[in-house]
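Lay summary

Proteins are chains of building blocks that fold into shapes. Our project writes down both the chain and a compact code for its shape. Here are two examples, one after the other.
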Amino acid sequence: MSEAYQELLRGFTITAHGASVELPSDVRSINKWVEILPRADLLKTAEMLSGAASRSLSRKYLGATRFNLMEALRPAVVDCIKGLDRHFLGSPLPLSSDRLVKAEHALFLHHTMAEAYRRALVELCHPEGDIPMMRSGNATACIARCLWHCQQVLLISWNLYRTAPSGIWSAMRNCYHYAVSVKLNNNAVEDGPLQQTVRPHGLFVETALMALINPLAFTAPELDQIKTITAGMAARCTVCNSAVSEHTAQLPRDEADGDGVETGYLEFDAFFHVLTEAVSANGGMSPILLPDGKTLPVRTALVKRMLRALGQASARSATRVYGEYPIDTVVGLSGVHFFAAGRIDFETYIQNLSRLSGQGISTAADWLDSGETPNHRLLDATVLDHSLGGYRLKWGVGQTPRARIGEVVGLNSAAPGVGEPDWMLGIIRWLRYETDGAVMAGIELLTRRCSALALRPVQGGHAGQLLRALEIPPLGEGLPRAFLISGRIEQNTPRLEVLYGFEPYRVLPSRTMESVLTETTALAANVDYTLLIEQN
């Protein structure tokens, strides 16, 4: 018995779930059973399919029997999952209870089908792991189906910023390693329900590439583009047993795997060079030339973030301070402004500015957000670890923010409830929703002390409307300061009037107004903010 076949036998984790339904034992009966499924009731159909598929895993079959049964059942499963996906993909997070139920059904169906096809492969090649004569097509299909369903489990988890079910990566690795051992990894397989042709190597490598760039740091539309790029580049990347070049990374592992688990390596030279060549283009878009000759236009900012993720070795090697301690946080620019201004709403802030500066600023202007209330909420969080560049923190149950990638977060560096708050400013780079309702996030630090202010663009001697903003002093010497505003400024080099009203830690005499020339840059594409960098 080969070592790859022995690995294939390990780690079956699915237990019975859903309605108490026994799957018929022959293909003709399954076809009849599928015809009477209550398709109008999506959840009832999902429960019946989940129950039948998971209970079938407790039964033993000979040869290709399970494979044939799963092939008969799979079109109905794929169709049901597509219906479930429409109810929760793209929905605001965290999901409502009814959407979460549908997401869990979709995840379970994908996971169950992956395990069923892996078990079908074990039975097909029983007892020594050799592929029977004339069965290589069935074996390749088992491998490809298993890898595809595992990939979908990960994609859904990444889209929802959730932890994937345990054992997904070990199942993918074991299935792929077996494919390599029997030289089926590059064989093409037709997938009828998906109307596409797939290869085990492509499915495994494109999933590993996506994991490598930290998918929890990207939005769902960005992940769709990243999947297209990784799918196009998968054939140019290599799975190997050791680091063979600068651009080699260890294959992903499950959280339950220990550090001693050997996962193998992924060499991604071609992927890295394609991104590097694309980002050198001028303008806001970077055309990525894929090996099949197609060109995919992608935002330059997205390509840079992908390259940054691939180059995270230096960040991972940076000294991190571990130890859990509480911290006050507030999510969103308006909330940070409220607390950084001394718990003053923006309208009152403008009134104070008018009195301080003698500018006679009208508080009845149409730019004031009359619907805003000062009911901004401090959220208790726990810092899990931090480095000079940022924090990894967790919001517990009941403190869950409605956050997204790219949202700004205020972090009170003073001890909670002790002394004057001292607000640092960060940006959410990745999110993960835990099964217990907690939310974990990676926060990149923008500045260790921010100030609330108001600013207005000046063009042709005409001052525009006042905007809520935060001043961002640089983290290092010799770097320019920046300003973060709510909304968009289209001018590339606007001149700003900056109005100050609350600076509790300023040593020099307090400021009222100054004129600044800045350049605009995007903070993140999915948030309605503008980052303005001061020109030297």
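And here is the second example, written the same way.
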Amino acid sequence: MAKNIVQYNTFDIIYIRQYSIFMPKLYNMRNEPLKNILLKKRAIYEDFRIIILLLMFLLTGCHSDPIINGKMSDPGSFEFYKKKYSNAIIHYSKPKDSLKLKALYFILNNLKEQYFTKADWIQAYNKAILNSKTKSLENLVYKRDSIFQIYPFSLDTVKDQEVISNSYLIKNIDRAFEARTYKWVKNVSFNDFCEYVLPYKVGNEEPEDWGMCLNRESYLKSDSLAKVENIIQAVGYVNDHLSWYKGTIDYDYPIDIGYLMSRLIATGTCNSMTRMAAFQMRAIGLPIAIDFSPTWGNRSEGHFWNALVVNNRSYPFDANGPNIGFYKIEFKGTGRMPYKISKVFRKTFSLQSTPTAICHNNSEAIPEIFKTKHIKDVTDEYVPVSDIILSYNMDFKNKLGYLCTFDNKRWTPSFWGQISGHNILFKKMGRDMVYLPALYTIVDSNSNIKPIGNPFILFRDGRSKEIIANENSRQTIVIKKKYPEDETNNIVKGEKYELFYWNGNWKSLGIQVAKCNILYYSNVPKNALYWVRDLTEGKQERIFTYENDQQVWW
């Protein structure tokens, strides 16, 4: 704060001196007390400062083209936004609003990549939902599928700058600063406030006045909220009031939607639940982030959750769940295998500078998940990590390589590494899992993984070991399961199975019909990575190594 005051006083003195050239009477009030003279100086200065600012913006506003210092400005540049949202800048030009002006500049500095999507099917689907008597899961799915039989699933991208106004930004900033008055957020830094409370949106939804919508939530105004003493309790209080939102893995709205429609549907996956929690908690000043792992390191699918971010520390939690601030390295359900993390990303409003953005601009194919400039890597806040450098005797045309994990069916890019000469550096990789190094390409509109080395194990202690099939040394292996999740993953008599091993790609070791609850495969290369598939039924499958006559799952 002291720094801001010094900057302001210097600015004040400079402009009083400049105005004194045109207003000599300002310094000729000899008969009045000094305090009154200074107050009058200040009042006159404030009036003239606002008038000058208005004239400056009005004069520059006379041009239809965004000219800055004689040059055409970038339609997505900060200077362009300063011109477009000059009324909001003027609104916060008084010294008492200096922090609000900084908040406005934070939004403008990060506005370029903000967008939402529109399509005819969205309006039709929303209308169908609004006119429906029930919002049951079955009805939501039925109406969605019915809409897509009529409309193609196409999306038009609309930049936020095309729809948000000066008054909208002012209303949102004022809403966010009102939320700063709650007692439990007094230690939240201004940076965390800007990133996780201030933004007018949570994801890529169409901008709306969600602050006004949240005024309908009576529990956010109740006496019980006033009894909350600290920031952890405040998060728990809101989370306890989210039980009306029903989590499911069977339905989600196809795109990001705002608070109002989310509240109406009240059903969705962990992704949608974290968004609802963020809306509700940010409304009372809580700096809430959305963290996610796109795919588990040792199984398919992924997970989204929230994190309270304060004092350079994250307190993760599941939306509508218990234990604020406690999240294990290994996620697991009762009787289930641990779910391991290879990467955790955090959604941000601020633009992140990553090589993926550079490659996207240069038309190098990159996985969809990495195309956004609004995520950052926070894996080391959750699990032990290692930096990995891979060296090759080959020249690369690509700028990025990838480490892939196996998602039960295929290798999936987990994270990118920057290529420098013959080396690829992968930063902060989660341990205790198998990775496959690869390049990413698009072939006939389909994504393609091109392996560039052997898979390797990154152990818990940070050691690594390549997995290289020994074609010259063979063994017989006993297979009791295709996946260590529950009894349904046991080998079932009468069902058809196929065993594969990795040697540059998956190579079949033959198909068997199980004669009992055990499979025996002979003439199997040693030291390989294996994968057994149930060709009769079932979805859960997992890679494994074979050590000491046992399947070791990865």
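What can we say about the second shape? Confidence is low (pLDDT under 50) at residues 1-35, 37-73.
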